[in-house]
Amino acid sequence: MTIENAKPLILIVDDTPTNIQVLAENLIQDYRIKVAVSGEAALDAIARQGLPDLILLDVMIPGMDGYEVCRRLKSDPTTSAIPVIFVTAMNEATNEEYGLTLGAMDYITKPFYLPVVKARIRNHIRLKQMTDMLEAMAWMDGLTGIPNRRRFDQVLDREWKRAQRNYLPLALIMLDVDYFKAYNDSHGHGAGDICLKQVASLLAEMPVRSTDFVARYGGEEFVMLLPDTDADGARRIAEQLRLNIESMCIAHAGSGISEWVTISAGYAALIPQSQQAASLLLDEADRLLYLAKDAGRNCVMGCLPQDESADRQQRSAKTVNLI
Question: Does residue 25 have an active-site annotation?
Fold first, then answer.
């Protein structure tokens, strides 16, 4: 990341060129700046170009006014946490009260005193950075450094709804380190922690798309969520995961099937239908993981169309396709 890209991003929403120029010239040294000259343009910029760290928002702008922009931002979970500071000539106490009631963090009236504006911006940026840091910590697994189950639940809910809206497949792989209790008994819990970190690190490196998501589900269990992926794609990835982890050659003296650490995995994929819950996909992957364990471990398991089941099971002892 470059120094420039590391700077917080401020979106200035104002239709008066002199106001934009004064704010931008005084903030550009410490922040990245983007500008929108209407409410619609501001919302479009956020949707297309990503979330700013703070918005300086005039009330009286063309089309949708600043109050309505703020209301829409705060009603959308994706944008509700963006700090909004109204910078406006509307200086009545009732105007300020209304803006703060909508969810704005601050309200600055024009003409403004630049040192005060900069100080308030600095304070709100620092507060947001601290909030983001605490939120990120709450979503990460303390041992492995990858997302935890709480974060996985949030991402699963989001991707499930997206797949429902767009009628797209969603796949899930659930995997478990084989004989992990025996690993701890043989090598010690400290070595067990190192083993889980190594597995997590490999899993985190596997996704090739930014939408793919890996998390520690609990104990020695991990999950990989694969949007826009069908059953055959999930099968290939699950099998590659199995091979890659075994090829790490982590010695496992307590394993009943290999001299190395191995995994078992279950994968499921479907196009979510209305009235279905995301737990359907999770329960199916979990069920198939336990089938993989029952089949002898160090394998991946998925569902088969009924008429193809017998034929494919004969052709593959390690993997099966999922509908």
Answer: no
